[in-house]
Amino acid sequence: MAVAKALRDHNLDVRIAQHGITGTPRDLIHNHFPHGDIVKGNVATFYQNLVWDLFKVYEPELYSDIWNWTLETYREQAKGKADNEVFGKFSKFAIKQFFDRIYGVGEDTKQAITALTYAETLVFLKAFNAGGTAQIVRDSM
To answer: What is the value of pTM for the model shown?
Structure first.
């Protein structure tokens, strides 16, 4: 927020992408972000973690295999880090390794992923005050 204010105070027409938004509470985004200055929030890790959490319940064997593979493959690169930190940083590389199994999960898992990602996306859109922006883009094209 301080960066956006400093740029605005100097009349610089610069927009900001917010990295590391996964742990940022959406109420903070909604109520305190300088809307209009921060124009992009990177949320891929948020959705990746959402799927991993669903796999813990819906696909526990797959989740366990992803967890173990990630730790076995990357623990040496992250000496001194806790297992959850190693998994958090490197589990994205498991997607390629487990691609067929991830995309072959059961229908109930797919439905849970769809429902939860839809709901969470609605919260992000509201938090970023992004309602109606797609129509604005369509109208200007």
So the answer is: 0.80
